[in-house]
Amino acid sequence: MRAYVDQRAGMAEDGWSAAWTFDLEHWGTCGQGPDDDAALADLAARCGLGAEALDAGTLQVAERVDRAKTGDETVFDRDRAPATEAEREATLAILEVMRVRTLELVRGAPPSVLAYRDPHRVLPVYAWWHTVGQLALHIADTESRYYLPLLGLPARERASDLVTELEESGAHVRRVVSRMAPDLAATSDRDGSWTSVKVLRRLAWHERGELEVLARLVEEAAVENPG
């Protein structure tokens, strides 16, 4: 399996590296860690390859980009290829499954759980999504009001309540992605470089990654607020 390393990507934490694969079997999978080796080990674990994958050649680094040189939100050369229908379909399938799970967690959460905040959770300095409810809203914000507009695709206004927002945002994104041109590309000083492939892989990754945190926070909140 080929890996693509985004050095100093700073997604989970400032300065951390991210390791991606474009393999369809693991589409949207991203490993993260404080350095390249840790990110690659995390990617290998998430893909079920085992700790020896890099040394054994099962996982091979195809490309590295360094944000210290390229600036924020760069692209791999692989991102510049037109998106395939298989990549689009994989993204749509992941989005649909993940949204069902997010909605299950949010619909079943009383106000005390939605307001729960883990005081020990480390977030980037710019992050505002501290509570369960804020994190769920961040998922919709990112897909509908960040990723899509970066390629000139239509954004949407927030709905008045969280459940409706998640339902409508998910439907909107799947509708736009199903019709998105495969070879879109945009670059700006503020937002960096984006392509159709990059948006698809980031959409396939983002909610799935945030769901890991969301589920943990809901579980912790239920323990602290058993009533």
Mean pLDDT: 92
State the CATH class of the largest domain: Mainly Alpha
The CATH topology label of the largest domain is Four Helix Bundle (Hemerythrin (Met), subunit A)
* Residue share in helix: 40-55%
* Order of strands in the sheet with most strands: 3-2-1-4
What is the CATH architecture assignment of the largest domain? Up-down Bundle
- By DSSP, the count of extended strands is 6
Shape, per Cα inertia axes: globular
Q: What is the oligomer described by this structure?
A: single chain
Strand count, sense and closure of the main sheet? Answer: 4 strands, mixed
Question: What fraction of residues sit in β-strands?
Answer: 5-15%
Explained architecture:
With 227 residues, the protein is an alpha+beta fold. It folds into two domains: 2-71; 80-224, dinb family like domain (Four Helix Bundle (Hemerythrin (Met), subunit A), Up-down Bundle), CATH 1.20.120.450. It has eight helices and six strands; from the N terminus they run βββααβαααααββα. Strands 3-2-1-4 form a four-stranded mixed β-sheet. The radius of gyration is 18 Å and the shape is globular. 34% of the residues are buried. The mean pLDDT is 92.
